[in-house]
Amino acid sequence: MAKRSNARWSWTGNALLLTAMAASAQAQAATTPGTGRIDVAAARIGAPVRLYLEVVLNQMPQPQLVPFEAREGRLHADAVTLRGLGFRLPGAGDHDTVALDAIPGTRVRYDAARQRVEIDAPLSQLALGTTALGTHGGHAPVAAQSAPGVLLNYDLYASDTGTASSLTAASELRVFGLGHGVLSNTAVARGIRGDRDGDGRGWRGDSVRLDTRWDLSFPGPAVTLTVGDAFTGFLDWTRPVRIGGIQLGRNYALQPYRVTAPLPGFLGEASVPSDIELYIDGIRQYSGSAPAGPFQVNAVPGITGAGLARVVVTDAYGRVRTLEFPFYSTQRLLARGLSDWSVSLGAVREDYGIRSFSYAGDPVASGSFRYGASDHFTLETHAETSAGLVHAGVGGAWLLGMAGVLGASHARSAHDGARGSQSALGYGWNNHRYNLSLDSRRTRGDYRDIASLHGPRPPTRNERVVAGITTGAAGNVSLSYLRLDHADPDIDRARYAGLSWSRSFAGRWSAHFTYNRNLDDADDRSLHLGVLVPLGDTRQLGASWQRDRDRDTAMLDLARPIPGDGGFGWRVQGRAGDRDDGGLVEAGWLGDHARVGAGVMRFGDSRHTYAQASGSLVRMGGHTFAARNVHDAFAVVSTDGHAGVPVKLENRVVGHTDARGMLLVTPLNAWQRNKLSIDPMDLPADVRVAEVDQLATPRDRAGARVRFQVTPVRAAVLVLHDEHGQPLPVGSRVRTADGREAVVGYEGEAYLEGLQAHNHIHVRHTGRGCVIAFDYPETAAAALPRIGPLRCLGPLP
C-alpha cells in the first residue's frame, strides 16, 4: 500500500486503487512526451501498482474503467484487456503482459490527477469493426392505417361534331377498410347520337367492364395477393398478358423505405472520431460522424450510372482529408440476398375494352423470379404454360464495374411438337454526359409464348441502339436505330434511324429538333422543329414546324397551363400548311373538388366541340366528400367540428376544414409516413389542442382517419385583489374547487382553465388565505375573457 506521507491514498474494498499526487507542477505531466513512459520521479511509483484508469483511445472515451499496472515507470496490461480495447497483438498469449509503449507507433499520456490514460495508436495495430454510415432504416414495414369507406373516381367527356355527338363516362370504384384488402372495379360507358344506316338520328350506347380485382397486401414479407384481373410476367425479355385469376407476388411498394438496388459503398478509415461528408458529382448526399476505425458510407446516390463520389473526412484535430471513388449505380439489379417473384394462374382476357367478360377457355400458369446473387449479379428465370405450350427461360444482369450493365437471357418453347428459342442480349452505360444502350432479341424456329397464342408472334429480330451526349454549349444530342423483323411474311421489315437535339437558352426559352427516316423507304421520313418561349411566370408561347413525307405543317401555340395547386388555365392554337388549316381554343379550371374544361377546334371543314369533367366522391366516417381524382391514398382530417382550420401536408397548407370541421387531404403516399399538422394560432382561444402534428400512414389506394382533438375549455384571465383592494402579490397561489392551480403574476393577474358557470376559488398570499366567487360571462365563447378585479371575500373556511 502506498505511504500516506507521500500524499497518496488507497481504497481496496473493491480492489480499486486511486492515486493522488501532491500539488506540484510535476504532477500535471506524468509521462515523458513522445515515449509513453511514466515519470517515476513525478509519479512516485516504486513497486508495481495496480491502477484502474479511464481510457481514451484515439480520442474515443471507453465506457468502463480498465485495469493497468504501473511498473518501472511504464503502464502494462494483459493481452486480454488490450484486445478488449481493440488492439491486435499478434503472437501474444491471453495472459501475457504487454507494455503500452512497446506497441509500435503507440503514444501514451497518463494523467494522474484525473486517473486517465490517453492512448493514440495507429489503425494498423487495432482491430476495429467497420462502422456503417448512411444506411437507411425502414426495412421493417410501417404500421398502416385504413378506415372503412367507398371511393368513386369519375371522368366525363362530351363532344359534338355537328353531325354526331358522344358521351363517355369512365369510372373507378373502390371499397376499402373492410379487412386489409381493397376491392376495385373500372368501367366505361358510352353513348353516341348520329346517323346510323340511314335510320335517322338517335342515341345508342353501351358499357363495358374493364378490370375487377381484390388486392390483399402483407407489408411484413412485402407480398400482395390479387384475385381478379392482373398481368403476368415482368421481366425485360418476356411479354406479359392480361389474365383473370389469382396472382401472388413480391411488392416492394409496401416497404417504400427499403432500397432494393445495390448501394455503392465508399470505404475509408479515421484514426480519431471524425465528421464525414459524402458528395456525389459535387452534390452533398450525406453528412454525419464516425468513430475511430474503418467506416463505410452507404448513402443512396442522387444519380443513375457512372459518377464520382468524394468523401471529406474532418477529424477531431481539424485536419481534412478527401477521398475520391468512381462508382456505377443502377436500378437494374437487386441487392444481394433480395428476391422478386410473381406467380399467376388464370385465363387470358380477350376483347379487352370491347366485351366485359371474355376469357379464353384454356387455363394459363406463369411464374417469374429474380434473385440478387451478389451486388454485381442478379439471376432471372421465367416459366409459363397453357394449351400444350411449355415455355421456360433463364437470364441475368451483370454489373461490369465502371463499364456498365450487361444483360442476357435465353428461353425455349415447345408447342404441339414445334420448338423454338429466343436469345436476348443488352448493354447499357451512362454518366452525367454520355449514354449508350444496345438491345438485341432474336427468335429461332417456331418460338411461342402465351401472348402469341392469343395475338401476334414475337418479332424474329428486334434490335435497338440509342446513344446520346449532353453538353452545356451545344445542347443534348441523341441518335437512335430500330429494326423489327416480323414472323409474318406479309409484314415488311422495318428499320428506322433518328436524330434529336434540344437545348435551353438564357431567358428560359428552349428549342428542339427531331428527324426520323425509314431506311427501307426513302419517302418515309419526318422532321420536326419547335421553340418554346416563356412569357412571364404563367404563360408560354410555342412555335413549331413539321414535315411528314412531303407535307408541311406550321403551328403557333399560346397557353397558360393550369397550376398544379389549382386555378385557371387556357390555350389558343393555330395551324397552317399543306394539311387542313385551323385551330383550337380551350380553357380549364382545377378546383378543390373537381377539374373541368371545355374547348372548340376546327380543321378544314370539320368542327369539334368538347367538354370534360373529372373528380371523385368519397364516403368515409359517415361523411361524403367531393375532391379531385384520387389516384393513390388519402386521409380525412377532423378538427372536432371547428371550421376554417388550415391543414398542412408536409408543412404546406392544402386546405381548410369545412363547416363540419372535416377535410379530405389528397394525395398521400401509401405505406409512407405523411406528416399532417394544424396551427393552433388559427383556433379560438377557448380550446385546447392535444397534438398539432400527426403522422398518417394509409394503405395503398385507401383512406386513413386523422383526428386532431380540439377540446373546448372555459378559460379566463382573472384580476385578483386582496381585502383592501390591492393586487395580490406576485407568486400567490390560486386553486379551483376541482384542484386546478395557478400562480398570480404581475398586477394580480392569473390564467385559469376549467372554469364553471359559477366559481369559488381559494387564494393564499403572504401566509393568509381567502375565497373569491365569480360567474363566468355568457358572452365569452369566442375570446379569452378578462374578469375582474375580483376582491377576496373572507378567510378560508
UniProtKB/TrEMBL annotation:
<dbReference type="InterPro" id="IPR000015">
    <property type="entry name" value="Fimb_usher"/>
</dbReference>
<feature type="domain" description="PapC-like C-terminal">
    <location>
        <begin position="718"/>
        <end position="778"/>
    </location>
</feature>
<dbReference type="InterPro" id="IPR043142">
    <property type="entry name" value="PapC-like_C_sf"/>
</dbReference>
<dbReference type="InterPro" id="IPR042186">
    <property type="entry name" value="FimD_plug_dom"/>
</dbReference>
<dbReference type="InterPro" id="IPR025949">
    <property type="entry name" value="PapC-like_C"/>
</dbReference>
<dbReference type="GO" id="GO:0015473">
    <property type="term" value="F:fimbrial usher porin activity"/>
</dbReference>
<keyword id="KW-0732">Signal</keyword>
<dbReference type="Pfam" id="PF13953">
    <property type="entry name" value="PapC_C"/>
</dbReference>
<feature type="signal peptide">
    <location>
        <begin position="1"/>
        <end position="29"/>
    </location>
</feature>
<dbReference type="Pfam" id="PF00577">
    <property type="entry name" value="Usher"/>
</dbReference>
<dbReference type="GO" id="GO:0009279">
    <property type="term" value="C:cell outer membrane"/>
</dbReference>
<dbReference type="GO" id="GO:0009297">
    <property type="term" value="P:pilus assembly"/>
</dbReference>
<protein>
    <submittedName>
        <fullName>Fimbrial biogenesis outer membrane usher protein</fullName>
    </submittedName>
</protein>
